[in-house]
Amino acid sequence: MPTDNLIGRAALVLRALSVTGEPGASTSDVARATGLARPTAHRLLAALADEGFVDRDQRSGQWYLGPELYLLGESAAARYDVTQQARDSVHRLAAATGESAFFSARRGDETVCLLREDGDFPIRSFVLYEGARFPLGVVSAGLVVLSLLGDREIDEYLARVDLTERWGAEHGPEPLRERIAETRERGYSVNPGLVVEGSWGMAAAVFGAAGEPAWALTLTGVESRFREPRRSQMGALLLKEAHALTTTLRQRAEVSRPESGPRPGGRAGR
């Protein structure tokens, strides 16, 4: 959705490029994805290119994320990158079930897939892939994160976001609230082929230091592999791995947290 804030519009452009991968995106593609007018999208792309945040192939005219973002990402990784800790959980899920396993992070009103590992079952779902973004409430990762937010935050989100235009009537407020209630009762979410028919997904939330659902572990595959009692078994496995990863990430946060103490000229840290 377009925003009047310049930084917000630049962020929209960068996010649009982040999901295109190869072979990049044209100016028109970026304008469509962001809802910005084409001249506005072009001005933002050109300004970001001047700073190295985007790059343009002079032969094809396609835009890509630029080298400056890579350098900034390297600097931020030490504080925010949790994929190394999550990789073992994703591997165990894929190996134990034969399905495709994923790790996603919440970013505002979306979840972003950060890791994927395929199991040994030859038929796979390709709804999720590294870099894929979905709104909260869409795909199993987005559903479990949304479901475990506070009631007020859920109400505010459903009041301002219309998921039905792109994702269909099953993503309207009432069906979503039913799936939220089911997810809270089970502890994990189930997406019964609502994004792509026959492609099922399940997810469990991984919690941040403040107790908020910040990430999700997911299993996806074909419908025939997600019937009971196997679905319950995979749900229990997801919950086990999500709990273990939550514990690991909290321990990491405790280790990296600076010790609080008296500040010069002030009171002790609280």
From TrEMBL:
<dbReference type="Pfam" id="PF01614">
    <property type="entry name" value="IclR_C"/>
</dbReference>
<dbReference type="InterPro" id="IPR014757">
    <property type="entry name" value="Tscrpt_reg_IclR_C"/>
</dbReference>
<protein>
    <submittedName>
        <fullName>DNA-binding IclR family transcriptional regulator</fullName>
    </submittedName>
</protein>
<dbReference type="GO" id="GO:0003677">
    <property type="term" value="F:DNA binding"/>
</dbReference>
<keyword id="KW-0804">Transcription</keyword>
<dbReference type="Pfam" id="PF09339">
    <property type="entry name" value="HTH_IclR"/>
</dbReference>
<feature type="domain" description="HTH iclR-type">
    <location>
        <begin position="4"/>
        <end position="67"/>
    </location>
</feature>
<dbReference type="InterPro" id="IPR036388">
    <property type="entry name" value="WH-like_DNA-bd_sf"/>
</dbReference>
<dbReference type="InterPro" id="IPR036390">
    <property type="entry name" value="WH_DNA-bd_sf"/>
</dbReference>
<feature type="region of interest" description="Disordered">
    <location>
        <begin position="248"/>
        <end position="270"/>
    </location>
</feature>
<dbReference type="GO" id="GO:0045892">
    <property type="term" value="P:negative regulation of DNA-templated transcription"/>
</dbReference>
<dbReference type="InterPro" id="IPR005471">
    <property type="entry name" value="Tscrpt_reg_IclR_N"/>
</dbReference>
<keyword id="KW-0238">DNA-binding</keyword>
<keyword id="KW-0805">Transcription regulation</keyword>
<dbReference type="InterPro" id="IPR029016">
    <property type="entry name" value="GAF-like_dom_sf"/>
</dbReference>
<feature type="domain" description="IclR-ED">
    <location>
        <begin position="68"/>
        <end position="251"/>
    </location>
</feature>
<dbReference type="InterPro" id="IPR050707">
    <property type="entry name" value="HTH_MetabolicPath_Reg"/>
</dbReference>
<dbReference type="GO" id="GO:0003700">
    <property type="term" value="F:DNA-binding transcription factor activity"/>
</dbReference>
